[in-house]
Amino acid sequence: MENLKLIDQLKKEGVFKLETKYGVLIIAHGSKSQGWEDQIKRTVDKVQCAYPIVISYLEFSVMTIERGIEELEEMGVTQIIIVPLFVSSGSSHIEEIKFALGISHAFSGRADIQPVKLQVPVIWREPMNAHPIVLDILSDQIQELSKAPEKESLLIAAHGSKQPSLSEKWSEQLEKIKSGLERRFAFEQVEYGSLYPDNLREAAEDLLSKGGKVLVIPLVLSEGYLTKKSIPAKLDGLDYIWNGKTIVPHNLVARWIEQQIGEAEAEAEGKCSDDHTIND
Fold this sequence. Notes:
It is built from nine helices and seven strands; from the N terminus they run H-E-H-E-H-E-H-E-H-E-H-E-H-E-H-H. By secondary structure, the chain is α/β, with parallel strands linked by helices. The strands form two sheets. The chain has a four-stranded parallel sheet, with helices on both faces. Strand 1, helix 2 and strand 2 form a beta-alpha-beta unit. The radius of gyration is 20 Å and the shape is elongated. The chain starts with a helix and ends with a helix. About 35% of the residues are buried.
């Protein structure tokens, strides 16, 4: 109901384009913690966008992907921009979401999401990966911890994946993030480790063996079990510096979402122009 009121207001103000009724569906994982969901909502509320935005979750919420799609369709949108709020394309959930939306017809795992019936086309955007804004966010976190980078090493802690094909995607993005941070900071060494495969502690011990302080930053979307339990447990007993800050609730996340929406709109408009030219 709140979203329907929003769309009516946008129409009255002439902001909502009747000829391009885009809707935006933000998809996040979800959590048993209400605080986690509240944090995601506060972040999305900062997004400046002329189109209606709905947040859906994979689990622990009544606002499922199917319900999110239905809400946007009820508003009369004719195209839905899908923005997966995940840190890596290596997440198995990304394959699952694309399968459920009919974007991909191949899914090797066990799908927990049922295929969604779509009345309108969707425009898929990729997760955050090694986007420059992600590097900006991580850089801010590093600056809070680092005192003398030339005497420090940096360890990026990631979730990773057990599946070889997805693990490869994680490694590809982590390498890009590592290279980006090496260009920004004069650390003795920058490395990354993951929970899957289980090499996080080994990476930390290797950096510590070379002397100097070791800073650890989590490549994790939002504070929760990973940052409070999983990663600290792997590093238990080691001497490292960390504050556990995650990508959300950094203000730049909203700017990243805005970029995804803008690029999706440009892509859709470009296709429409091409189609029009061909028909002429």
